[in-house]
Amino acid sequence: MKDKLSQGREFLLDGIESGRFPAGSKLPGARDLAAELHISFLVAQHVVSSLEQDGVIECVSRRGAYVRHGWENRLIRNHLVIFQPFREWIPGMLGFLAEELPELRFSRGFRRGMFELRTTFELQEHRDDYMDLSRFLPECIHDEGRFFSRPFRGFSEPDGRLFGIPFIFSPRVIFFNRGMLAAHRLPAPRKNWTWEEFIGLIRTLRRHYPAERVFTYFDRPYFWMNFIFRAGGKLIDRLPDGSTRVCIDSPETIRGMALLRELCTTVYGFVSRGAEVECPFHNGDIALAMADRELYSVIHHSGFDDWGTVPLPEIPGGRNVTTQATDLICVRRECADNALAGKYIRFLLGERMQQYIGQRRYGIPILKQAAQASIDSEDPRDLLFLNEMNTMSAEYNVDSPPLTEIIYGGVSDIIHSDRPLEPAAAELASALRTILKVRDEIRRKKN
């Protein structure tokens, strides 16, 4: 049972998040609040003053309390924020949270929380906003052998600072619709299929279906980095000394960008930035989709069963690498309650929560025992995710929003233009090397 102060705060915060008390509106007075919640007038006053201190409301002398504009940007000391707060597994988690960690409040309206679950790319981009979690590993993990270690790569600094702990993870694979292929006497993709076979299949399917029903191309780093990785390329490389090597103009990276142009024009007939919304594979409406295990969960609950999975196509001379999808446990640097941070990490890494998320088949749990129980050993479509685990890479290597905008915005512009690839890549790489040289020199002077 939460104390009266917490109950009062939650009443007002729930009302603000739901729109009952919109920005700029006047809140109930302390006496009205006390009467409605059956709390004392003194506690009601404390509720209002605490939210004023948090910057959520503004108290105006002799006029009352009002919801501040921009309240959603405030950072509240006990808020838990998840990047997609309406997932089907959230209600079950909230039940466990109420039992085991009632100190935390799950928020759907605030953009930041002191405690968060974030995605691979987003967390790497904002890594400096989060505290080092390495100190919590001994007390939260105990036996490291119980957890997968590979998914941790990409979330630590050369000095050992750990800015995120994987909660669940997944490699990416190709899903294919057997019925749509069979309708045109097309064979199912084989395990070691090549880029030429992949493009050839898309080209054939385009004779029978519109682009949006063949394959969804997304202008997102998590999508197109798969093909740059598999061509043997990368964009930047973080070195052990903390400096950064630019690889945008390497032959392998340029080759990957050329393949992406080929893919895009094969799907759409011209260079396009692709779809904003994916055609739902689980409805049986699309022939091919590249996705992580979350899609397996969606399909499993939909009843659609005429489908299969294969690894991403091989690119001769490239590498067998896919981008890692990860939901990561992270804590803001502003957190002053290490005890609560430790509880939060233990809650999500605990067997109860890991087994639950495994039962929902939402990604692969980081706890090995939960992962083994989650994967259907009788279904080769699901086993593929376990087999592809060693191909995962989370090495986007971005470490700030400005750097991300320059690198990924620049690369995206090159891919989705008609500019010659080599001079365009060389121009971007040269500019980036200059920026990074200056930045690294500034950092060295500060240290």
From TrEMBL:
Chain coiled-coil ranges: none
Native source species: Victivallis vadensis
Family label: Belongs to the bacterial solute-binding protein 1 family.
Protein name, UniProt field: Carbohydrate ABC transporter substrate-binding protein (CUT1 family)
Stored InterPro entries: Bact_solute-bd_prot1, SBP, Tscrpt_reg_HTH_GntR, WH-like_DNA-bd_sf, WH_DNA-bd_sf
Compartments reported by the entry: Periplasm
HTH gntR-type domain sequence ranges: 2-70
Domain of life: Bacteria
Keyword Transcription regulation found: yes
Lineage, top ranks: Bacteria, Pseudomonadati, Lentisphaerota, Lentisphaeria, Victivallales
UniProt keyword annotations, A-Z: DNA-binding, Transcription, Transcription regulation
CDD domains: WHTH_GntR (cd07377)
GO molecular function: DNA binding; DNA-binding transcription factor activity
Any one of the GO CC terms: periplasmic space
